[in-house]
Every structure is written in structure tokens, then in C-alpha cells.
Design the sequence.
């Protein structure tokens, strides 16, 4: 496969070291395993490891390769083993707050062009959760496309009602309702996938992401799990993120289901996703209005008179507060880490002098 077919477009060409460092080639990270990586070059998928400098010199997870990264590689053993020396600049980086109390980023995948946000039309349907996925995508400058699965499980009237609810609060996004069982909408999804573009699937467990990939591939390659009957929730079928090459020429990254969608410092994503609130805010009396208690607040007024859905307004306030709190905590943690690192460095220098 040519690099272009793996997603290496003009954006990366302009940022590629020229000439390439002696002995190095470019490849794309296809999977991240516990002890190594799988990289994809023009000929095949090859196991790879990091140089000691990259492994032990990285200060945060941002310095290490993730699925979708383009990397500089040196090959050994007749091109059957790769050593990753460095990472090319990233066009986009999809990330979220790690699950749990720890205030740290979890990097999901890099260099994605389009995020397929999958939400089922049965009991999983949840507009506030959809907004969190949209924030995640918009904050990373990744185009979101909303896929509403399992449209065969509800009536046409109920389906249209839910689609209208999505359109009302998320105007401008492409929305495709589909069914893995009946095949409805699958051709529309296939037609939207462009050659050389990278897509990812985001959504809760059990919404049909892995089944959708099997449908796009035309064969059941990846294991799927049925949803639980008692609460209609899904089980994890995808255990890791991996880059999959589709016959129609696009690339897609499947991701494990996410139940916790915390955000850290997502101001840009928040403004893009809640553009209606951003527009209303221009008419507030105060430029630094928090839209919580200030007089002559256009956002509060719109929520009170029904022009802005109450649940959307409340979700906006909740996510903004959460994002700002996590960002402060993260920056404070980074400051402490830097101080600790400097202390260790100074101690080592003093030992060497002694």
C-alpha cells in the first residue's frame, strides 16, 4: 500500500523531515500492545519497539506513540522488526480524562479525520452523553458524524422523534440512522467513507460498533457480544484500539466502549458543540458572564422561556464546571511533577559532584 492509502496526505508531507534521517522510514501505528507496537508500512504489518531514548525520556503520555500516529522507524532482521525513533507532528489527537479520580489524560488515537459517534436508538439513547462525545471530537478538530444504531428496534415515529431531538440541539451535523440487523443505512455509511481518510468509532459498549466494522468488512472478523437483557447495556467486545484497513480504501479505528466521559480543559470543544449558547452569550450584559446568576443574562433568559432546552443548558454548565476544575487540578499536578523532576535532577548532579 502507498503511504497515501494509509492516510499520509499533504499535511504530513509538509511536516516530514527532509531529507529523512539516515536509515529511517515512515510507518503508521496500527495497534498498541502491552509490550510492543504494531506498525503498518507499504508492505506489511510489523511488530515494533521504542528506542530507549523515547521510552525512558518521555515525560508524559503525549510523548509516546498512539494508534494512528505516523512514526520514524528503523528496520532490523530483514524488515521483520521495527524500532520507533520519533513521532511525526499530529494532525489531531483524540483524548479524554482517564476514568476514575486520577486527573490525567487518556490518549485514544491520533490523526483522525472523522469521528463516527454511535448511539443506539433504544435504551442507550442519551443526548447529554452525545454532547460529551461531540465535545471530545470538536476539541480535537475532528469532524463528528452521528450514527444512530438499532433503528429496527423502534417504530418509525419514535425514530423520527429522536432524530429530530438530535437535530434540534445539534444542528449542522450529518446524522445517519442504521441497523446492523436489517442493513438499513449501511450503504449511506459506506458511501461517506473516503479513500485515504481515517475514521474512528466512539460510543458505549453494546451500541453495535464492532458489528458495524464487520459489516463494513463484509465478514465477521471481530468478536461481538450480546447486550444484557436486564438493562439493555452492552458488554465490552473491543479490548484494544487498532487501525483497520477497509476494502473501499478508508481506514477505521475501533475503540472500547466508554461509560465515563470526563473532560479536561475543553473550552474550544465546548464552544463548538454548544454554539447556540455561545451565540446567546454575545447578548449578555457582562462579557465574562458565567450564565448562572448574573442579571440580563441572555442564556438564562433563553432557558427560562424555553428557547434553550433545560437539559442542554444544565449539561453545558455541568461540563464546563467539570472541565475547568479538572484543568486546574491537571495544571497543578504538572507543576508538582516538574518540581519533583527538578529536585531529582539536582540531587543526581550533586551526587556526581560529590
Sequence:
Amino acid at each position: 500500500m502507498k503511504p497515501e492509502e494509509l492516510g499520509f496526505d499533504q499535511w504530513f508531507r509538509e511536516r516530514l523531515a527532509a531529507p529523512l534521517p539516515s536509515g529511517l522510514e515512515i510507518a503508521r501505528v496500527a495497534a498498541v500492545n502491552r509490550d510492543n507496537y504494531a506498525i503498518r508500512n507499504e508492505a506489511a504489518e510489523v511488530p515494533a519497539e521504542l528506542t530507549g531514548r523515547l521510552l525512558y525520556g518521555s515525560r508524559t503520555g503525549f510523548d509516546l506513540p498512539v494508534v494512528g500516529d505516523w512514526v520514524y522507524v528503523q528496520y532490523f532482521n530483514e524488515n521483520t522488526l521495527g524500532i520507533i525513533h520519533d513521532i511525526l507532528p499530529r494532525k489531531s489527537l483524540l483524548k479524554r480524562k482517564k476514568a476514575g479520580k486520577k486527573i490525567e489524560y487518556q490518549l485514544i488515537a491520533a490523526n483522525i479525520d472523522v469521528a463516527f459517534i454511535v448511539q443506539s436508538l433504544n435504551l442507550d439513547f442519551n443526548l447529554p452523553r452525545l454532547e460529551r462525545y461531540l465535545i471530545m471530537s470538536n476539541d480535537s478538530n475532528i469532524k463528528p458524524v452521528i450514527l444512530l444504531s438499532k433503528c429496527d428496534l423502534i417504530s418509525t415515529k419514535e425514530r423520527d422523534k429522536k432524530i429530530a431531538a438530535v437535530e434540534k440541539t445539534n444542528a449542522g451535523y450529518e446524522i445517519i440512522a442504521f441497523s446492523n440487523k436489517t442493513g438499513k443505512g449501511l450503504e449511506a455509511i459506506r458511501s461517506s467513507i473516503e479513500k485515504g481518510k481515517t475514521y474512528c468509532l466512539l460510543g458505549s459498549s453494546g451500541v453495535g460498533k464492532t458489528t458495524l466494522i464487520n459489516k463494513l468488512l463484509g465478514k465477521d472478523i471481530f468478536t461481538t457480544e450480546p447486550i444484557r437483557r436486564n438493562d439493555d447495556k452492552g458488554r465490552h467486545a473491543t479490548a484494544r484500539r487498532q487501525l483497520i484497513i477497509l476494502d473501499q480504501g478508508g481506514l477505521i479505528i475501533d475503540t472500547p466502549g466508554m461509560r465515563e466521559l470526563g473532560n479536561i480543559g475543553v473550552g474550544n470543544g465546548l464552544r463548538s458543540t454548544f454554539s447556540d449558547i455561545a451565540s446567546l452569550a454575545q447578548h449578555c450584559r457582562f462579557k465574562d458572564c458565567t450564565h448562572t446568576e448574573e442579571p440580563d443574562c441572555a442564556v438564562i433568559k433563553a432557558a427560562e422561556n424555553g428557547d434553550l432546552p433545560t437539559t442542554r443548558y444544565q449539561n453545558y454548565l455541568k461540563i464546563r464546571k467539570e472541565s475547568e476544575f479538572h484543568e486546574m487540578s491537571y495544571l497543578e499536578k504538572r507543576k508538582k511533577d516538574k518540581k519533583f523532576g527538578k529536585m531529582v535532577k539536582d540531587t543526581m548532579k550533586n551526587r556526581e559532584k560529590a
Q: What stands out?
A: The CA atoms of residues 121 and 234 lie 14 Å apart. Residues 233-238 have pLDDT under 50 and may be disordered.
